[in-house]
Amino acid sequence: MYPLLGFVLGSSCLLYIGSPLGFGLGSNWLLYIGVPLIIGIWAQIRVTSTFSRWSKVRASGNITGAECAREILQAAQIQDVEVMETNDFLGDHYDPTKKQLHLSSNVYNTPSVAALGISAHECGHAIQHARAYAPLKARMAIVPVTMIASQMLPFIIIGGLFFRISGLITLGIWCYLILLVFQLITLPVEFDASRRAKIILREMGIIQPGEEAVGVNKVLNAAALTYIAAFIAALGNLLWLMSIRDRR
Ligand SMILES: [Zn+2]
After folding, report:
1. Percent of the chain residues past pLDDT 70, beyond the cut
2. Ligand 1 centroid to 247 CA: how many Å?
């Protein structure tokens, strides 16, 4: 659902701790690190609370997230995607490389408004994949280099800031550029999946207009905020590293 927010916030914290030791805080610290960190934490709290609120509201269609996913995939004539249960809380995602749709236990087994919204959103990704939706293909193409950049970043930040190795700061800037491009491509992919989800749930009669539709909108909109927050945080971290480099 919301890739990388936790990771980006983690590296923001590392920058927060490391910067005073290595380079001093300077005037832009609050703007580049502090504000995005607060927005990110707020988005994370909001998505968790919205999900838990609408998890308690049972949808009148009375099918679980797993049943919902299988019905949607069947209606879209997608036969080769496996719907699976995962234990990670809010760990719902579609894996295009294995054609697996992973739903967290709370979504997989529950007939709630929140579960159906998230289940339909992940189906939206499977449909994007089946229909060769261009932004999804672009995102898949840069996943490997994004993985490398994100695995290197903690070491780069620690080495660059704590040990004042300026070459690492430049490398860190490149890593954040990659992350930023990934986050930027993620935005249309996620918004489109949610847009498809809302239409499908309504057209298939899985979600009724009124309170249920409002709940689905709230859950998916709260998730959308986390992608925007992750983008802002990655941008802030990038600008911060650039300002540190220029100061030297
Ligand atoms: Zn998604």
Report:
1. 91
2. 39
Give residue 2 CA to ligand 1 midpoint distance, Å.
6
Q: How many Å lie between the centroid of ligand 1 and the Cα of residue 224?
A: 9
> 35-55 vs 113-130: helix axis angle to the nearest 10?
110
What's phi and psi for 222, nearest 5 deg?
A: -65, -40
Contacts of 75 (CB under 8 A, 6+ apart): 200, 204
- Of 71, 82, 85, 122, the active-site residue reads 122
Q: Which helix (H) or strand (E) holds 67?
A: helix 65-75
Closest to 118 in 3D by CA, of 75, 88, 141 = 88
> Which pLDDT tens digit goes with each residue over 189-203?
999 999 999 999 999
Q: Which amino acid is at 138?
A: A
212 classed as catalytic = no
Lookup result for tokens 């709370």: 106
d(CA 53, CA 37): 24
Distance 165 CA to ligand 1 centre (A): 37
Q: Is the per-residue pLDDT at 135 higher than 70?
A: yes
Instruction: Give the separation between CA 248 and CA 238, rounded to whole angstroms.
Output: 16
CA of 26 to the centre of ligand 1 (A): 37
Nearest alpha carbon to residue 240 among 8, 5, 71: 8
DSSP alpha helix (H) spans, 97-165: 105-108, 113-130, 134-157
pLDDT surpasses 80 at 52: yes
Q: Read off the pTM.
A: 0.89
